[in-house]
Write a structure and sequence with these properties.
Two copies of one chain form a homodimer. Chain A is mainly beta and about 130 residues long. Chain A is about 10% helix and about 35% strand. The first copy, chain A, has two helices and eight strands. A four-stranded mixed beta sheet of chain A has the order 2-1-6-5. In chain A, strands 3-4 form a two-stranded antiparallel sheet. A two-stranded antiparallel ribbon of chain A has the order 7-8. At the A-B interface, strand 1, strand 2, strand 5 and strand 7 of A face strand 1, strand 2, strand 5 and strand 7 of B.
């Protein structure tokens, strides 16, 4: 497969595209992150989600530290070409570095943000073996 | 309700936060856009999605031209505070300006991007009455 399809992405001024991960089956939106060209290319080729870490300024192979890889079932592109949607199988059932299923674990109610998802595994345990 | 909760958002250097709209019921991710403080405040107060149009540099009250408003059932915030997820009821069943249900109407296959969703209503008809 040639990489012509990568040229249809509208990379932002930092060379990144927004990437949303949605869980296959449950439909739960797990996280939003960013990808550069290499991250998206590797994701498509290898079938595992690879992001670009803006804080660390390097490729972030999701699960490299936690083991919580995302197996990518499908990659979708939006009308503007500036966001991709990954339909994924979430290994360990934990996408968030806080140990929760989804990163979207706060919901707005009349008093502000309230937590709606339990910590399934403590972060100190998740990252212990791989640190 | 005071607006203390807005201070927990990590606005980017342009004063924006990423906003993902997901359809209630179907779980379909409809679109990704951006919000500034006023857009998110109005969305929470009025129950209809208001975004910030980066191309037009003004508030974009979703549906103002198309009639395809989004009634917001829930607003979620991610762990980093830099992305919100709106669970919405999509009026007209069309979120995309191209007349499709979702903006994510392209899927990557071995030959590149392929369209996976039909145009439900031609854009020239959608925008005719309101232009």
């Amino acid at each position: 497969m040639n990489e012509q399809w990568l040229n249809q992405i509208k990379w932002n001024s930092d060379g990144l595209v927004a990437a949303i991960a949605q869980e296959a089956g449950t439909g739960r939106v797990l996280m939003m992150a960013w990808m550069n060209r290499q991250a998206l290319s590797e994701t498509a080729a290898g079938g595992k989600a690879v992001y670009w870490s803006r804080s660390r300024q390097r490729l972030w192979r999701k699960g490299e530290a936690s083991g919580h890889e995302q197996r990518v079932k499908e990659i979708q592109l939006d009308c503007d070409g500036d966001a991709v949607l990954l339909v994924v199988e979430q290994l360990g059932g934990i996408a968030c570095h806080t140990g929760r299923h989804s990163c979207f674990f706060r919901r707005l109610d009349k008093n502000g943000w309230v937590e709606t998802e339990p910590v399934l595994k403590d972060a100190s345990i998740i990252y212990k073996d791989k640190s």
